[in-house]
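Example S7 (structure tokens).
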């Protein structure tokens, strides 16, 4: 039934554009009977101003125009050419052929100064003039990008029309490979002439006319090739504070480099600037981003507030990063990157949890005092050649991440507990891709090797789960040791060929995966340490071989763009657990087809739809039937079997843009239904401690949502308005204490923002963010969470060298014990013009708010979390441009 539905929708989508179309042809001639080429021929309803379609005459003066309106008897044809007089004629709305003579006439075009237009479009490139959006308080390019209409920034990630960008370039070069936060937060805004959005950009030159792309690339066009950057040195008190940043960068025609040293304890997590938001270059590039080694263990956390981390993060971070790109004369690009950071963090707070079962409500209180030591090292080298006749890419990366965490808990006001966790993940990745034309056939070969070593250990004092692992007797310490290793080897071969308007790309992949999991539990009572036997240790070795066959089909015809993907996979499994062959030479197959259609109505409007579905198998990382203690109050084991998931997903998305008026809009709907042949089953004891396993019972989930956004730049009053909102509905099944529960979650969110810089003396911005989540819990209980947050920033510039910024924020929710909390920050800036340096005095949390209470819920929990905030503090700093 699902397959029939899938193909029915595909056939409908294919047939839509060909229904009720009329072809009008003709020939355009001069008065001397010579053909006229490149005449724009358009049509519209008689008496209407709305253009419905157009084409151009060829070298022989012949034009072909497809008319798609059927509700009128006649249409108006318009002929336009700069060297000939404009002519309009009315013709019958039926297939026919005509001949027309155009009179010679040279028409003058009024001069337009592009530099005076804040937003304008050239072909598929939208240009934002940086100077038009820059205020006196703006220093780095991120300050500008987050204002631009049509563009959003979410946690450092840049989105255009609601979709993440696929590349971030400076003068056409992508030095950072997805880690663009370092440039975004440190490149001086006055070094940039334009921010450009390259719509429908195909980053692989060989595919430029072969495979359509609906993704966007962001490019920064600098005013000149330059060496620039930012620096900051700051000291403060309450407690002793420091904030230092030296980030020089150089942008030449074929060489770019960026080096950064940053350290602070003011609540700024600068390691987020190293976060990769994309990898690879698209269509047939091998995977070049690390997968994460599985983390089986954790210490009990206290939930962090959902607002600006500088108000609550207690940190001491040191970061160093070095990056470069060199483009050689033969088109080869060589990139190198190195980064390392060390961060010490502390988190303190109180968590009150209610567990809702069908029989009772369990209540717990935990006073949490945690500290963390986080380190990460990354080294990478990339060689890439991206030309119209060859594509070569080889990426080699090494990463090591390690984390030592210590947690102290006072449980229900009378039981102290100590937790100690050690985790590390060491990984190596090499990804290779080569594409060449053999005749008219594009051939691409990819190969990826990835290796992980992920040991981890958790110690809890006193020991927990006495009835399960120590015959009901109290004991001193519980220890969980886990060792995980994995190896992946992926190989692929694909072909691409364009036949008329169709592009066919068959491919074959052979992927091998091997992973090993060893774990055991230690019980210590005084000086006696013993390792638990059967049922409490794991010795798992699994192998998976995947043969994947796929056919991608694309077509561009008139205003339609079609894309189909038909992948089929055959899996082969072998699994050993505790020395016993649990799975031997078992085969599974899956088919995951997808289709999408985009219709470009005109230069301002486009609409697209997608449909996908299929079957997947997973659960190999959880292939263990011996208990693993994942947290001091959580223990789990799973049956050794494959987990099957089936899903059907569809959506529709609309986009509008009018660059002349700086108007942008997007609206989308998505629907996903999933079926599983298993359920996670959780059993809670009287203290709220959970034991999780897998139950062989079918389950379903349904998720649908609507998301949209509007943005506009009012040029006359220099005001930017942005509106974003979303609606989501989700229904899912789970088992709690052997009772089937169906969870219903409804959520709505809304954000409105105004940014005004009409006055050279006073400017500001206001943003309101509101939301609601309604969660139906077990036993017929329900919970509603509301938030209502307001942010107002006022910038006062009484003189060119003086600047005062007042930042106000109000956080409200419906938790009775928490009143709306108001924060005020202030900054005074004095400009040393000759030295291009700012002297700043900053005061944060001036009202000295000490803690924050928030509430959230999950499948069966309702949690209230008190979190200790950073105290009132002052910082004197010198910020300068390199």
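Recovered sequence:
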């Amino acid at each position: 039934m699902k397959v029939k539905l899938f193909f029915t929708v595909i056939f409908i989508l294919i047939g839509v554009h060909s229904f009720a179309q009329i072809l009008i042809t003709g020939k355009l001639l001069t008065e001397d009977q010579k053909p006229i080429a490149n005449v724009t021929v358009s049509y519209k309803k008689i008496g209407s101003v709305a253009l419905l379609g157009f084409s151009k005459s060829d070298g022989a003066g012949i034009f072909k125009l497809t008319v798609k309106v059927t509700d009128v008897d006649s249409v108006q044809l318009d002929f336009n050419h700069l060297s000939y007089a404009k002519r309009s004629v009315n013709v019958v709305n039926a297939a026919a052929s005509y001949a027309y003579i155009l009179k010679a006439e040279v028409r003058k075009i009024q001069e337009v100064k592009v530099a005076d237009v804040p937003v304008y479009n050239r072909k598929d490139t939208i240009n934002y003039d940086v100077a038009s959006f820059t205020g006196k308080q703006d220093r780095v390019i991120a300050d500008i990008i987050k204002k631009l209409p049509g563009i959003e920034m979410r946690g450092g990630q840049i989105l255009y029309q609601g979709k993440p960008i696929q590349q971030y370039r400076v003068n056409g070069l992508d030095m950072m490979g997805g880690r663009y936060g370092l440039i975004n937060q440190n490149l001086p805004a006055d070094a940039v002439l334009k921010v450009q959005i390259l719509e429908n950009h195909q980053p692989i030159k060989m595919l430029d006319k072969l495979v359509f792309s609906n993704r966007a690339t962001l490019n920064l066009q600098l005013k000149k090739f330059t060496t620039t950057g930012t620096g900051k040195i700051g000291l403060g008190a309450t407690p002793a504070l420091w904030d230092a940043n030296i980030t020089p960068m150089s942008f030449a025609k074929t060489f770019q480099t960026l080096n950064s040293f940053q350290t602070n304890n003011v609540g700024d997590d600068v390691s987020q600037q190293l976060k990769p938001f994309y990898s690879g270059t698209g269509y047939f590039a091998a995977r070049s981003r690390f997968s994460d080694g599985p983390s089986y263990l954790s210490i009990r956390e206290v939930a962090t507030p959902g607002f600006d981390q500088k108000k609550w993060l207690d940190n001491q971070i040191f970061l160093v990063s070095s990056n470069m790109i060199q483009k050689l004369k033969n088109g080869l690009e060589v990139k190198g990157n190195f980064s390392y950071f060390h961060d010490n963090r502390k988190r303190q707070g109180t968590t009150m949890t209610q567990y809702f079962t069908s029989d009772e409500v369990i209540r717990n209180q935990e006073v949490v005092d945690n500290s963390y030591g986080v380190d990460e090292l990354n080294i990478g080298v990339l060689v890439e050649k991206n030309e119209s006749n060859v594509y070569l890419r080889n990426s080699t990366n090494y990463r090591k991440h390690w984390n030592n965490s210590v947690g102290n808990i006072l449980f229900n006001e009378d039981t102290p507990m100590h937790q100690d966790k050690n985790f590390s993940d060491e990984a190596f990745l090499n990804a290779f891709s080569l594409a060449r034309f053999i005749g008219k056939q594009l051939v691409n070969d990819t190969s990826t090797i990835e290796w992980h070593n992920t040991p981890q250990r958790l110690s809890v004092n006193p020991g927990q789960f006495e009835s399960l692992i120590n015959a009901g007797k109290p004991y001193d310490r519980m220890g969980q040791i886990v060792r995980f290793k994995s190896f992946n080897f992926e190989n692929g071969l694909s072909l691409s060929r364009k036949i008329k308007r169709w592009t066919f790309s068959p491919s074959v992949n052979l992927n091998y995966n091997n992973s090993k999991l060893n774990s055991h539990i230690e019980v210590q009572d005084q000086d006696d340490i013993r390792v638990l036997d059967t049922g409490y240790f794991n010795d798992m070795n699994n192998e998976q071989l995947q043969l994947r066959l796929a056919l991608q089909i694309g077509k561009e015809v008139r205003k339609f763009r079609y894309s189909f993907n038909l992948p089929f996979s055959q899996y082969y499994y072998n699994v050993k657990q505790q020395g016993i062959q649990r799975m031997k030479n078992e085969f599974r197959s899956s088919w995951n087809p997808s289709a999408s259609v985009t219709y470009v109505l005109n230069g301002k409007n486009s609409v697209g739809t997608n449909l996908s579905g299929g079957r997947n198998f997973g659960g190999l990382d959880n292939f263990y039937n011996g208990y693993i203690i994942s947290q001091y109050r959580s223990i789990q084991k799973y049956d050794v079997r494959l987990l099957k998931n089936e899903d059907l997903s569809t959506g529709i998305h609309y986009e509008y843009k009018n660059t002349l008026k700086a108007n942008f809009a997007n609206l989308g709907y998505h629907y996903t239904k999933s079926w599983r042949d298993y359920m996670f089953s959780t059993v809670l004891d009287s203290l709220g401690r959970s034991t999780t396993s897998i139950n062989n019972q079918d389950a379903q989930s349904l998720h649908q949502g609507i998301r949209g956004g509007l943005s506009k730049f009012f040029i006359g009053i220099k005001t930017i308005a942005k509106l974003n909102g979303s609606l989501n509905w989700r229904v899912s099944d789970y088992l709690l204490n052997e009772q089937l529960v169906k969870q219903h979650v409804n959520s709505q969110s809304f954000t409105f923002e105004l940014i005004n810089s009409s006055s050279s003396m006073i400017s500001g911005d206001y943003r309101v963010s509101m939301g609601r989540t309604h969660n139906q819990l077990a036993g017929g209980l329900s919970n509603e969470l509301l938030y209502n947050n307001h942010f107002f920033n006022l910038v006062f510039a009484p003189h060119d060298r003086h600047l005062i910024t007042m930042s106000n924020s109000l956080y409200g929710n419906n938790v009775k014990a928490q009143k709306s909390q108001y924060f005020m920050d202030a900054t005074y800036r004095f400009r040393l013009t000759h030295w291009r340096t700012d002297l700043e005095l900053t005061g944060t949390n001036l009202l000295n708010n000490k803690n924050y209470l928030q509430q959230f819920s999950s499948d069966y929990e309702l949690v209230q979390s008190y979190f200790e905030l950073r105290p009132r503090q002052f910082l004197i700093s010198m910020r300068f441009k390199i």
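Notes on this example. Helices lie at 2-16, 130-133, 141-145, 181-184, 466-469.
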